[in-house]
Automatic annotation (TrEMBL), chain A:
Entry keywords, A to Z: Chemotaxis, Hydrolase
Protein name listed in UniProt: CheC domain-containing protein
Hydrolase among keywords: yes
Organism the protein comes from: Desulfonema magnum
PANTHER family: PROTEIN PHOSPHATASE CHEZ (PTHR43693:SF1)
GO-annotated molecular function: hydrolase activity
UniProt record, GO biological process: chemotaxis
Entries under SUPFAM superfamilies matching the protein: CheC-like
Stretches that traverse the bilayer: none
UniProtKB/TrEMBL annotation, chain B:
UniProt source species: Desulfonema magnum
GO biological process: phosphorelay signal transduction system
Record SUPFAM superfamilies: CheY-like
Keywords annotated in UniProt: Phosphoprotein
Name of this chain's protein: Two component system response regulator
One Pfam family, short name: Response_reg
Domain of life of the source: Bacteria
């Protein structure tokens, strides 16, 4: 799937972006820890250049890590433009609800379990994607606007519509971080995908970020 | 007095950023390792006065490396440089014996203040002997 992409993004540019993603995801997990008492084990992020048309296959491949998978997806746009996608096994929502359960009845717990799971996933996705993309923007001195997060189950019509929305003629930079919710023994991954039109801006912003260190 | 500094990070950019934050006029000897395993071998080889250690690295991470280095030397001064600023991560590295934790992205001022703290710790240590 990976072709020679050095003309699109050099190794040095990938290294800078990888470090920025590392910083951003670290901050995002700390933000999540303020809301839910959960520790997240992190791994080093990876950066790949892909055709956007390859992303559905890539997602399908990554979702094979779990028997049934859900994604939380959020678009963002500005100078930095693309998608944030959180991939998690289906049981994550239920496990997170158990962590949030403080024994006090409330409106949230009156909802059907499927609704609760969807809301928890949406909130976790919103925090991780928002905090991660937000930190990238802060470091690169820009800002973006987000669509509301949507929870999409694998093999659903929504999922087909979601992957059909990718323009196969475009190139994307894909940033991936694998993580683990330690207390509930669940692995997930966060993908941040930039659209082709953001690549030129991104390259310039990366060098501006490094200027104080040159 | 600090003579030798070991920088441990899998990211070449992170290592470069840290090196640029270290004052040039002090003429420190700077060594680098790209993961936790290499850091242990380098530590034994050069016995640095201070080690800057990333946490999130493939294969052998910073937590494992800190524990192993502390087995080699109880006196090892390890400054953790990390983007993982979760409270549990910070308390875990402090329990492992880290001297200080610096949040990424590193700032020149913070790195220089840290080096002064390390100098003071080394002076107190040699004065006490």
């Amino acid at each position: 799937m990976n072709t020679d992409s050095s003309h699109i993004f050099s190794d040095e540019e990938k290294d800078i972006l990888q470090e920025i993603m590392n910083i951003a995801f670290g901050n995002a997990t700390a933000d999540l820890g303020e809301v839910i008492d959960i520790y997240v084990e992190l791994s080093a992020p990876s950066i790949q250049i892909l055709g956007i048309g390859d992303i559905p296959d890539y997602l399908t491949d990554r979702m094979k890590l779990h028997p049934e998978t859900s994604i939380v997806a959020q678009n963002f746009w500005g100078d930095f433009k693309g998608y944030g996608i959180l991939v998690l096994p289906n049981r994550t929502g239920r496990s997170l609800i158990a962590i949030l359960d403080d024994g006090e009845p409330n409106d949230f717990e009156m909802k059907p379990i499927a609704g609760q799971e969807r809301e928890v996933l949406m909130e976790v996705g919103n925090i991780l994607i928002g905090a991660c993309v937000g930190k990238v923007c802060e470091l690169l001195n820009t800002f973006v606007t987000y669509t509301p997060p949507q929870v999409i189950h694998e093999n659903s019509n929504e999922y087909s519509s979601f992957v059909d929305s990718f323009d196969p003629s475009q190139t994307a930079i894909l940033m991936e971080t694998v993580f683990r919710f330690k207390a509930i023994d669940i692995n997930g991954l966060l993908l941040v995908i930039t659209s082709q039109e953001a690549i030129e801006w991104l390259r310039k912003a990366l060098y501006e970020f490094m200027e104080p260190y040159e | 007095m600090i003579k030798k500094i070991l920088i441990v990070d899998d990211s070449p950019i992170a290592r470069k950023m840290l090196k640029m934050c270290i004052p040039k006029d002090k003429e420190y000897e700077i060594y680098e390792a790209v993961d936790g395993l290499e850091s242990i071998n380098k530590y034994q080889e050069i016995l640095p006065d201070v080690t800057f250690m990333d946490l999130t690295m493939p294969e052998f991470d910073g937590y494992q490396a800190i524990a192993e280095i502390r087995k080699i030397s109880d006196d090892a001064i390890i400054v953790v440089t990390t983007a993982d600023v979760q409270r549990k991560s910070i308390s875990r590295v402090i329990e492992l014996g880290a001297f200080l934790v610096l949040k990424k992205p590193l700032k020149q001022k913070n790195v220089q203040e840290t080096l002064i703290k390390v100098e003071n710790a080394l002076e107190n240590r040699s004065g006490g002997k």
